[in-house]
Amino acid sequence: xxxxxxxxxxxxxxxxxxxxxxxxxxxxxxxxxxxxxxxxxxxxxxxxxxxxxxxxxxxxxxxxxxxxxxxxxxxxxxxxxxxxxxxxxxxxxxxxxxxxxxxxxxxxxxxxxxxxxxxxxxxxxxxxxxxxxxxxxxxxxxxxxxxxxxxxxxxxxxxxxxxxxxxxxxxxxxxxxxxxxxxxxxxxxxxxxxxxxxxxxxxxxxxxxxxxxxxxxxxxxxxxxxxxxxxxxxxxxxxxxxxxxxxxxxxxxxxxxxxxxxxxxxxxxxxxxxxxxxxxxxxxxxxxxxxxxxxxxxxxxxxxxxxxxxxxxxxxxxxxxxxxxxxxxxxxxxxxxxxxxxxxxxxxxxxxxxxxxxxxxxxxxxxxxxxxxxxxxxxxxxxxxxxxxxxxxxxxxxxxxxxxxxxxxxxxxxxxxxxxxxxxxxxxxxxxxxxxxxxxxxxxxxxxxxxxxxxxxxxxxxxxxxxxxxxxxxxxxxxxxxxxxxxxxxxxxxxxxxxxxxxxxxxxxxxxxxxxxxxxxxxxxxxxxxxxxxxxxxxxxxxxxx
Amino acid sequence: xxxxxxxxxxxxxxxxxxxxxxxxxxxxxxxxxxxxxxxxxxxxxxxxxxxxxxxxxxxxxxxxxxxxxxxxxxxxxxxxxxxxxxxxxxxxxxxxxxxxxxxxxxxxxxxxxxxxxxxxxxxxxxxxxxxxxxxxxxxxxxxxxxxxxxxxxxxxxxxxxxxxxxxxxxxxxxxxxxxxxxxxxxxxxxxxxxxxxxxxxxxxxxxxxxxxxxxxxxxxxxxxxxxxxxxxxxxxxxxxxxxxxxxxxxxxxxxxxxxxxxxxxxxxxxxxxxxxxxxxxxxxxxxxxxxxxxxxxxxxxxxxxxxxxxxxxxxxxxxxxxxxxxxxxxxxxxxxxxxxxxxxxxxxxxxxxxxxxxxxxxxxxxxxxxxxxxxxxxxxxxxxxxxxxxxxxxxxxxxxxxxxxxxxxxxxxxxxxxxxxxxxxxxxxxxxxxxxxxxxxxxxxxxxxxxxxxxxxxxxxxxxxxxxxxxxxxxxxxxxxxxxxxxxxxxxxxxxxxxxxxxxxxxxxxxxxxxxxxxxxxxxxxxxxxxxxxxxxxxxxxxxxx
Lengths: 546, 546
Prior knowledge:
The structure is a homodimer. By secondary structure, chain A is α+β, with helices and mostly antiparallel strands. Helix content of chain A is about 25%, strand content about 30%. Chain A folds into three domains: about 10-210 and about 390-435, Bira Bifunctional Protein, Domain 2 (BirA Bifunctional Protein, domain 2), CATH 3.30.930; about 255-360, YbaK protein (Alpha-Beta Complex); about 450-545, 3-Layer(aba) Sandwich (Rossmann fold), CATH 3.40.50. In chain A, the strands form seven sheets. In chain A, strands 3, 7, 8, 9, 10, 11, 12, 21 and 24 form a nine-stranded mixed sheet that branches. In chain A, strands 13, 14, 15, 16, 17, 18, 19 and 20 form an eight-stranded mixed sheet that branches. A five-stranded mixed sheet of chain A has the order 28-27-29-30-31, with helices on both faces. In chain A, helix 2 crosses helix 11.
């Protein structure tokens, strides 16, 4: 492609609201353009990268035997009523009415739609298993769209859904998809971890997130320094040794601690219309997700100060309606301290079971760096990640509510067992950009680069240089994707924009064109190789196949 | 692909609301599934055809030098306010509000968005011309969605936009796109005509529709029996010879005609808040589009009986506020007749200029079969068509209202001159199905067939047959797209479904498998060729490359 004919609106200034490198560079290098908050156009360079990622995903999905289909973005509300999600899904679900005043959603996800598509068809165990996927545009009205394509309101996802006759078969497919996802992200050149995750509003149990490591990531990952254990911080299990000190309980007393006792603290939640009080050690943090999971609640809310005051809660006099939970770490506290917010009083020699009505302990706190890894191997470290994929074992949540059943081998009607598997396609593009850049611009891995070769004539007015550049462009376009900078710009501008765009290899045709000598620059390492036109074939293929 | 693993939900019954063959067969053969009125899923077979059409379009667009990009479906209302189309576009434009109560449209078309994307960038004649296209999902809330993918509410379009410094350059690009569209539809195997059309709400002047010929088409095309002249019936020019009879005007009289005089009739419209009365000969029909164009009005409305009564209009006493128009054919009427609806009276010896205040004649009627072709060659015939593409010379309608300007060679600021070019991608799929089928099912052209070869083992329980079928499947999958019917269904079911799905070639592996002999059936002609496995290569390639 000739650069003079392409729409590549590079920006000299850094856009004001672009907080992170990928957002900044994708805008500056003319890959994307914002049309509204969280809503973007993919300009020709951006679309080329996107299509390469899509191709990798298609290849790996097809290899698993999954079949591609394409469902609509507009979904009738009736389907969402069947699963109850019309009411549960908050303002993130974009809704609209048609001219007949009927309700529709813009699909944030497609469980309802795929289930409605197969429910009459996959009616026998003989037709199972089946896995279907699509690469399609999704909508989520994010409260705070940000970071460019990382958290947008209109974005591209690959979503897959599998249907099974039994759990074992789902487990098998889950592993196949896990492996396929690993290949996809490896091929995209991402550094990532598959981490144990929370299934959130999706339902189901087992789930892994694929997290591209990046300091700007919104997710915190806990991983072992000695094994491949990794979990979203929300889900990382905390192993608490039984280390209850063998001392006598002293009488509960109002008063300040002398600094030797272990502090306790508590947080009040509302869940299923009940008051829930959770105790942890003062230097630990309560993990809402774990609390929610222990309570088997769909949602829990921390009480505001006012709501809290209204409950009239007293730790030492809690009524039987109140649910008292305590973290495993609390179990080891004898004669601890407690500050009671409601009365602004401090107590010492607090013993959880005797004084606070605690009867059962759970893992309810966030893991910390240095904690032992839950798999017993090594210690926990933290890293930040961008969630680029997630796989779920959904089970029968959707098939039961939508009556998607099949006849098993014994002629009994049973709900389909489902898995679902997502990749944020546009988000993967951003994650690659976030991992692969330097201060001068983007550095695309060969597999997803918009062009593999960037040919620049230093002086476009010099006939010899342009002739050689044209000749190389013609020659290599047959084998590679080549961008030719044929613009009559200053060499400095061309070089700077070439670094900004970030194709893996650059061929610079300069003064030595007369002697048939050009420069090859490797964008990633900065290495510059002077070589004759005859040697080019070899040098290029060595680098692009590396 | 093995059929046992594919989602192909064929239907034995014809869906009740499917009025036309393509809709019926695409549903019955499991290519698409309806999710809501005018909203469909493309199942694996349907998506394969769709992707092939998309590939053809991409190849032909890229060949013209157009660059692909991808714009969002959700568009901020502000852009539509800039062009005024937010208010002009009726209920067909789907609208929604985000969580902050801001207005958005689901793109029915992307003139506003593309113009906003380029308006700061294409700021110099040096950067022109440029053509950009996308293949993307569009939304139109049709009053009466019908005919499956032909008139849907969510559908896939290829839309392209070109930007030019002068009209001559636009004219050049228009011809390039005209030629590219011709290639696209030829490659898709469509029988079509490029017809002169009305630019409607899009603005601009020159425009052609590409109409796939089909008896169920919603558009009526007038074409010459002796030249390549073709026009949408709305736009077909009527040539009226000057044949005014040389007789004296007789006095206007109330009374019934004896059957020898030429009848006149009139219709009352409202346009720009004025009463417009249009006269034509009794056996002609008024063409609203022509009336609208003569008036240079955005919209005209036929008055209801009540509205008409309220005007108090009297043909013989019209006031100066009323606009009187007459068709060219009226000019030749001397001593005609007129029935006045308002008073229910009949008149004879009506002379338009003398009695009706007619002073000027225009081409205002629909063309009829048998009329002379406007290009002077032959006579007009009618055909019905499905509009699969349209190309427009937009001019500066959008660039002016959105202030998209460039500096010309003399440093003067001028609005960009635009063209726009659409292909209904999903509609093309339907149009091919509508043209290519028989009573047994679909008959896909090789270029867009979901699979090129369909291999069937007559008896899947017969080991010899299955082994040979498998072997052929493996062998030809390396060269062609092959569907293997490995299901344990009765042979009759397999044959019927194979005809329904409509792959170009079918290889039937039956009893003669023992002797290495199979049957090849050509779907289109029904021809059956018995041949040895050794001869297959040759026979297949002869048919698929035909």
